[in-house]
Design brief:
alpha+beta, Glutamine Phosphoribosylpyrophosphate, subunit 1, domain 1, Rossmann fold, seven-stranded antiparallel beta sheet, six-stranded antiparallel beta sheet, 17 helices, disordered N terminus, disordered C terminus, binds iron/sulfur cluster
């Protein structure tokens, strides 16, 4: 899973994909809200590369721009200029990789609706595991939907509580939705941010220019010039308006944040729920070295996501770390046709071995193995370049179950560890030895009491939709709506 940035329309590659990044901002006086949100989105681009959007409001108007593509592609200076206007003080922004709803423009977020609470905009990260049944019920009752993503279910539910104000309606809906999610929403005067009761997806609070910002990761706060205040607590609803920051502990917290945020998804400079991401990745490598020592000459990480664990492995084992793989920074969104030969070429386009591996016994560290096809190609690259042995070390346990909380892990039958033994995977990828970090080793490296480990052990702390058909059903809905829009 070394390579990020799935191109639009390209083959479904051998990687996990994080779903989304969100930002929200409310300031006490007029400011260039669009530019600040734009900066925040740049810092969250790694969380989703398919579409992005920014919504900005003043006391009397609201404007939105969203489209398919990277933040740098969508937000030209002309588009940003259209979001700069007198009195702008409030906004939300979103960058998306789809796991429910098709990868189409009409599914880009934020989504906006006119409701009995005025104009609302919403953006979310994660999945509502009961969205399909909720949506079916609402359709039966006469609701109409313009998108196939489950954010629209939430905003419709909020609007239905016509006798409640925005805060109380949102709190009510928090108790009705299941799954793992972090949400930001706004009207023209305030922003709200919330996490599900398990806090599966991250959301943090910062202070900037006398106002407040909510973001998926602290890295967004830093680039916006904001000071980190704290994480939104699991089950908490926070609201920022002209009177300041207000906290409501709506649901009893049962914290089980996603372990993969520390393994791979979050940026290395982020601190989530009090745990430094980079330090956790170093510890994963250290634990790996203790669990699976092997005589070798050099430790190599698969860039970028395997580097920190490789450094940890090297420190703990005493085997020197070196940059044995060079990653091209420009190949991320190259369109590759789905045939075997060109998939092999794609790995070569992105990764090239360096002389650090020639004639060496290599410990190769990566953060995960999904289908195993990319891992095998990287092992072969090293051998072709002259590595004498390749010992594969993985800084996560084997992924055996799909994620229902906003990560695209592929269907279960496609996961290497769901259908093969560790020895069979070793043979498939062509490594001399193979070891996955143990679940206790991962828990030790992260250091929290509990995290979600469902993709490793199948125990879903925030419930799950029953069958994978739940996911498929939404995708089918997506195709139907896509055809209607075509
Ligand atoms: S199932 Fe895996 S990827 Fe999904 S939230 Fe849990 S730990 Fe994270």
């Amino acid at each position: 899973m070394a390579m990020d940035g799935s191109p639009l329309g390209a083959w479904h590659d051998d990687e996990l994909h994080e779903e989304c990044g969100v930002v929200a901002l409310h300031l006490p006086s007029e400011a260039d809200v669009a530019s600040l949100l734009h900066l925040g989105l740049f810092a969250l681009q790694h969380r989703g590369q398919e579409s992005c959007g920014i919504c900005v409001a003043s006391d009397d108007q609201i404007r939105i721009e969203k489209d398919m593509g990277l933040v740098s592609e969508v937000f030209t200076e002309a588009r940003l200029e259209g979001l700069r206007f007198d009195g702008a003080r409030t906004g939300i922004a979103h960058t998306r990789y789809s796991t429910t709803g098709s990868s189409l423009r009409f599914n880009a977020q934020p989504i906006t609706v006119r409701s009995n609470k005025g104009l609302l905009a919403l953006a979310h990260n994660g999945n509502f595991t009961n969205a399909k049944s909720m949506r079916a019920r609402m359709l039966d009752e006469g609701a109409v939907f313009q998108t196939t993503n489950d954010s629209e279910v939430m905003i419709n539910l909020i609007a239905r509580y016509s006798h409640l104000d925005l805060r109380d309606a949102t709190a009510q809906v928090m108790g009705e939705l299941e799954g793992g999610f972090a949400v930001v929403l706004m009207d023209r005067h305030r922003i709200l941010g919330l996490r599900d009761r398990n806090g599966v997806r991250p959301l943090v609070i910062g202070h900037v220019e006398g106002g407040y910002v909510f973001a998926s990761e602290p890295s967004a706060l830093h680039v916006m010039g904001a000071t980190f205040l704290r994480d939104v607590r699991p089950g908490e609803l926070v609201m920022a308006d002209d009177d300041g920051l207000h906290s409501f502990q709506v649901l009893t917290p049962e914290p089980t944040p996603c372990a993969f945020e520390w393994i791979y998804f979050a940026r290395g400079d982020s601190v989530l729920d009090g745990v430094e991401v980079h330090a956790a990745r170093l510890r994963m490598g250290e634990v790996l070295a203790a669990e699976s020592p092997v005589p070798a000459d050099v430790v190599v990480g698969v860039p970028e996501s395997g580097l920190a664990a490789a450094i940890g492995y090297a420190r703990a084992s005493g085997i020197p770390f070196d940059m044995g793989l060079y990653k091209s920074p420009y190949a991320g969104r190259t369109f590759i046709h789905p045939n075997q030969r060109l998939r092999d070429q794609k790995v070569k386009l992105k990764l090239a071995p360096t002389p650090a591996v020639r004639g060496k016994r290599v410990v190769l560290v990566d953060d995960s193995i999904v289908r195993g096809t990319t891992s095998g190609r990287i092992v072969q690259l090293l051998r072709d370049y002259g590595a004498t042995e390749v010992h594969f070390r993985v800084s996560s346990p084997p992924i055996r179950f799909p994620c229902y909380y906003g990560i695209d892990t592929a269907a279960r039958k496609e996961l290497a560890a769901a259908t093969m033994t560790i020895e069979e995977i070793r043979q498939r990828i062509g490594a001399d030895t193979l070891h996955f970090l143990s679940e206790p080793g991962l828990a030790h490296a992260i250091g929290l009491n509990r995290t979600c480990l469902a993709c490793f052990d199948g125990r879903y702390p925030a419930g799950h939709p029953g069958e994978e058909a739940e996911k498929d059903g939404l995708e089918e809905d997506g195709r139907a709506v896509a055809e209607a829009h075509a």
